[in-house]
Amino acid sequence: MITQLDVDVAKIINPSHAKAYLNRNNWHKIGVSYNETLEIYESEIDKNAIAYLPISKKYADYITRILQLAKTISDVEDRHLSFILKDLSLAGMDLIRIRAPYQSEDHSILFEEGVAFFQETLKLMTNIAYSKFHPGKEKSSVKNSARMKRWRKEIRLGQTEPGSFIINVLVPMSFSNQGSLIDVKPRSEPHNRLATRQLVSGLYASKEAITLISKGKDVAVFEEKMDKGINADLCESMVKLIETGHGLDISVSWALTIPLPEKQKTSQSTTTFTQSDAGIFKEAVKVLENKQKCSIQPDFSNKRIEGYVYELNRDKSATKGSVKISSVINKKPCAITASFSEKDYSQITRAHDKKLIISVEGNLHKEKQGWNLYNPRNLDVFGDLFE
Predict the structure, then answer these.
(1) Closest CA to 279 of 216, 214, 201
(2) What CA–CA distance (Å, rounded) separates 271 from 252?
(3) 152 and 26 co-located in one domain
(4) How far apart are CA 226 and CA 100, in angstroms?
(5) Which listed residue, 152, 331, 337, 375, has the most CB atoms within 10 A of its CB?
(6) pLDDT digits over 189-227, tens only?
(7) Are the beta carbons of 41 and 50 closer than 8 angstroms?
(8) Phi/psi at 128 (nearest 5 deg)?
(9) Which structural domain, as residue segments, surrounds residue 18?
(10) How big is the CA angle at 144 (ends 374 and 168), to the nearest 5 degrees?
(11) Does 49 share its domain with 167?
């Protein structure tokens, strides 16, 4: 029996997505209808099963045809019609299922834990996008980039599933002509797929690192796998998701409209983490945070700034000292923090006491607390303005 929900799902199914499903699931095209409005497919499992795929959503009987197509697939695969329709509707997306294994007898979890699970999922996905689209950049400096804005507009939350506490994250794969099969050509990987691959790579690498640690390796193995998608933000999100869900399962069902990633042999990837893994991720966060601070890409390399020193800060026993400089960046007044060696700090102190302008070169980077000048060098102190 076809329900109203089935009809509603059929309305959103695109011909190209249905075609991708057929091609990936043992159906092959044998021709087109006489009026060229339908593509005809034969099942490799049941040679008597013939499926008809409408080539465009513009036809008046499109929904009826899609429901008939789904019913034919349902009969061959011996699965419920609603499951077939759901799979057809998601064929153009990477589906990331983030599951909390622990639940009470009525399949619920505490309200606060549920809210936290959603919040940490958002952080996880956002940080993955940052690390792939803007590697090495401070998040505050790129959060409004065109690519991040597009990512936030496209990523979706799917319907939850009965019997488990699962967050379904939908990552659409872009197609310019989704309403028709005409002129649909193979494409290179969309940017959204790159983010999904970054997530899976980081999860697999994390699992490998945890296995090595269980065999006696040091937590530094996480650092060795940073090129595979591991970073401090990923590990921090994993800690909170595992603690909230009392364990964690993350699976990815890859979109059918584009080829599977290289080395990916099946259409689904799954990783499972236990409660004890949270402690390992905590240690990894400490190691990776120190590593990432040393490898931050500056917003301005070899940038020369000018300004007044308005604050000095150095312990009596320290050789280096921290200062704050009043300057202008991008035509806006700002405060810049920098640390100077003992030799330069004496000149900085003189400039501060006599209200002299300084000029210094370094790698300028914007962080949450403001601008920082790393590796300051080639310091100049200009003459006293009041002499």
Answers:
(1) 214
(2) 9
(3) no
(4) 26
(5) 337
(6) 788 999 999 999 999 999 999 999 999 999 989 998 988
(7) yes
(8) -65, -45
(9) 4-89
(10) 115
(11) no
